[in-house]
Each structure stands twice: as structure tokens, then as C-alpha cells.
Specification:
Elements: H1 2-16, H2 26-32, H3 37-49, H4 53-65, H5 71-87, H6 91-102, H7 109-122, H8 126-139, H9 144-155
Helix pairs in contact: 3-4, 3-5, 4-5, 5-6, 6-7, 7-8, 8-9
Length: 157
């Protein structure tokens, strides 16, 4: 009877015992797990199309928090995460991401100013929206889509 009681316990212990030395430390685990920026951005784009905004935010937050992310992926991550925040009506976070993008040299400033103008319109801040639309017009150069959309605000404010 005693053997019947202890036998399952010994089997459990023999299969589930792992040496603490064999477990990875947090530092080693984080260093060995390199962030794949391209994979995260591509996966986030697919999830954005599927309207899985929480997954987009989670994936791109990994990119944005990484210290060694190239600027091109940082810009794309900020814009797409900002879009996901926008669609979930988290306008403050969306605006923060778009503004962070403006601080990076590779950022398409005309496009981002246009997006910020639309965001401010959504919030009912027409004067602030107008300033973003003016910036978009000034920065648009040969981007006729941005120019047309920004000018349409002034045609029908």
C-alpha cells in the first residue's frame, strides 16, 4: 500500500526534475533571442489587414523597444503601430507614435503631417489640424496624393 502511494510521486519527480544550472538566466535568454524586425513588420502588416490590432501593437512594440533597430524599420513600426492605435481609438498613443516618427530622418514628413491633420480633425481640433495640413502641403514636393488631400481640407474645412 505504501508503495502504491509513493510510486507515482517518484515517477513524477524523476521526469520533472531539472537542474537550476540548466535553466537559462533572463540575461542569457534575452541576449540569445534576437528581434527579427522584418518578420515583425511583415506579420504586423498582415494582422493590420485582418484588423487584429492588439497583435499589431504587441509585435511592433517589440521592434520599437529594441535598441538596435534600424531607422527604416523603426519608422515603419511607429507608423503601423500608430495606425493600429488609431483604429482602436487610442488617439493619444497614435499621436505619440506619429510624432516620434517625425523625429527620425527617414520619416516621410508630408505623409505623417497629413495623418496627424486627419487625427486632429477626428478629435475636433480644426486649428491644429490646419497647421498639420499646411505642413503637409509645404513638405509634399511631388507627392500629389498628399497635396490633394491636404488642400481638400482648406477647400471644405
Amino acid at each position: 500500500m505504501i508503495l502504491r502511494f509513493f510510486f507515482p510521486f517518484f515517477i513524477f519527480m524523476s521526469f520533472n526534475f531539472t537542474s537550476l544550472a540548466a535553466l537559462p538566466t533572463n540575461d542569457n535568454f534575452n541576449k540569445s533571442r534576437k528581434v527579427n524586425f522584418v518578420e515583425n513588420v511583415e506579420s504586423a502588416k498582415e494582422k493590420l489587414i485582418l484588423k487584429d490590432y492588439d497583435s499589431v501593437i504587441n509585435l511592433l512594440s517589440i521592434n520599437i523597444k529594441s535598441r538596435d533597430i534600424p531607422d527604416s524599420y523603426l519608422v515603419e513600426s511607429l507608423i503601423n503601430r500608430g495606425n493600429a492605435y488609431f483604429f482602436t481609438k487610442n488617439y493619444d498613443s497614435a499621436k505619440a507614435d506619429y510624432l516620434s516618427c517625425l523625429d527620425i530622418e527617414l520619416c516621410q514628413r508630408a505623409d505623417i503631417n497629413l495623418i496627424l491633420g486627419k487625427l486632429e480633425l477626428k478629435l475636433g481640433n480644426n486649428e491644429i489640424a490646419a497647421s498639420y495640413f499646411k505642413n503637409a502641403i509645404l513638405l509634399s514636393k511631388n507627392n500629389f496624393k498628399v497635396l490633394y488631400e491636404a488642400l481638400s481640407f482648406f477647400k471644405n474645412p
